[in-house]
Design brief:
five-stranded antiparallel beta sheet; 190 residues; five-stranded mixed beta sheet; 31% strand
Length: 190
């Protein structure tokens, strides 16, 4: 029996040696750090202490019943024949342990370096419009039980008026400017 004991001990040590790297790897799954650049929508990016995710981006049709709701309260003249409405629906979460404010500065940049900025939307008329918010630890924008949370997009809207030339100047990149520091970027699906 004494000859079996060292064999069992060796097997247990071998199992522990194999389990330790796996346990350390799984422990990293809960990390809160995300990249500051993403090659596509749906990827989490950090801009300052806030994590952002582009839920979806798409052209808006003012004649569509659903899209008319997203265009309510916009303050710009209608698009010219060579322009279109384009919306980005964004989600954000405060990953820090103190209060943090979501961004109020965004831009879409094409490959020619042309910058497009969001069109202001009256938030008293349009419940889907993005507004900068101060979030506590773990707080999200849109907040639970809000229209944006329960919408088909599950995000809040940034509205842009783009020139049709963007189709020749893809990919488009969303720039998210944190309160301090360099912008984070997301390549848009257009």
């Amino acid at each position: 029996m004494s000859a079996r004991l060292p064999l069992l001990t060796l097997r247990r040590l071998a199992l522990l040696a194999l389990a330790l790297p796996a346990a350390l790897g799984l422990g990293a799954c809960g990390q809160l750090s995300h990249p500051t650049a993403a090659d596509g929508e749906g990827v989490y990016v950090d801009a300052g202490p806030i994590t952002y995710q582009v839920q979806i981006s798409r052209q808006l049709n003012p004649y569509s019943t659903e899209d008319r709701e997203y265009l309510t309260g916009e303050s710009a003249p209608p698009p010219k024949p060579d322009e279109e409405w384009f919306a980005i629906f964004l989600w954000a979460k405060n990953q820090s342990h103190s209060n943090a404010t979501t961004s109020d500065r965004f831009a879409i940049v094409d490959t020619e370096g042309t910058h497009y900025y969001p069109v202001p939307i009256n938030t008293h008329v349009n419940p889907f419009a993005w507004t900068s918010q101060t979030l506590g630890h773990g707080g999200t924008e849109p907040s639970p039980d809000s229209p944006g949370w329960f919408s088909a997009t599950q995000g809040l809207e940034l509205l842009f008026k783009l020139n049709n030339s963007v189709y020749s100047n893809r990919p488009l990149t969303l720039q998210i400017y944190p309160q301090n520091g360099k912008p984070s970027t997301v390549s848009l699906d257009l």
